[in-house]
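pipeline: protein-struct stage 2 | run 1193 | Murein DD-endopeptidase MepM/ murein hydrolase activator NlpD
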Amino acid sequence: MLASGIRRIACAALVALLAACGSAPVGPGYYRVERGDTVFKIARNNRQSVQNIVRWNNLSNPDAIEVGQVLRVEPPAGTASVRTSPTPRTGASASAARDNADATDASAGSSAAAAPSISLVWPTSGQVIRNFDGRDSKGIDITNAAGTPIVAAAPGTVVYAGNGLRGYGNLLIIKHSGEYLTAYAHNQTLLVKEGQSVEQGQKIAEMGSSDNDRVMLHFELRYQGRSIDPTRQLPAR
């Protein structure tokens, strides 16, 4: 029982790490997303319009906010906002309001979420068989032969090395400067340990099929806990 409890705690901690790389308090005018939150709910609780939340945070896909993501909920200095009534809606009017908010969310915020640039190298060679979409795919999948070298996409520190998160197999998570994380899943072999510093291009693992039905690397890039398309930061090839 004790071992099972420890495993559950470890997995919960890893999920939090993937989502936010820590849970430090956020500053005034910001909110950290919690489980069950939606943009509509956050906007309502902060007496803001959905359009404000989408615009201030450059949300390209408002339906894909993640636990641990930090959102601005008060206007930047000199920016006008549209406040909404704090009175909760019930029944049919609440349903209609949510439908309208969802429609607004889908059409608002067409630009990519703002994040500082990070210089990455490709973590492995091979064919990209699945691209990032921000909803069903939080990263990219690259296939090649078992044992193909996996390298660190940027310099940083290994903050997780293990297989405690179901669906990721043998997983590495590396923390980089500028609140970035990279994750490397389904490895055959892990070659670095937690707490170890790694250089960009350093071999850190070998490609495998752990907790997966084919040999591949699942690679994720996260900024402030939010999944972003890694190909935007990778060189063309």
